[in-house]
Amino acid sequence: MKKLFTLVAIASISALVACGPSAxxxxxxxxxxxxxxxAVEAAKAAEEAAKAQAxxxxxxxxxxxxxxxxxxxxxxxxxxxxxKGKTNAKPAAKPAAKPAxxxxxKPAxxxxxxxSGKNN
Length: 120
Prior knowledge:
The protein is mainly alpha-helical. It has a domain of 47 residues.
């Protein structure tokens, strides 16, 4: 019985070892793992590049807006200096005429009574 048990144990251990991944399979798994890591790093690098580009675009837009604001201010000051002696004031606008009241808009008059309480 001891020999049979030993024989079964050796057979099960050798079957267990024989069912494991081969050297090629191990290499393929390692290559897939490295490819996955490289893909994640590439995605991270692309995301960082996009953030940097967005920051550069935002800075450029802000700079352009500030330059436009400074140019508008300078133009306004220049126009004020050149038109100092001139009067380009426009006459004040007349107030709009009030439209005539229609009978429907007039409030109803209350009847007038004298001291005796009779209607006039």
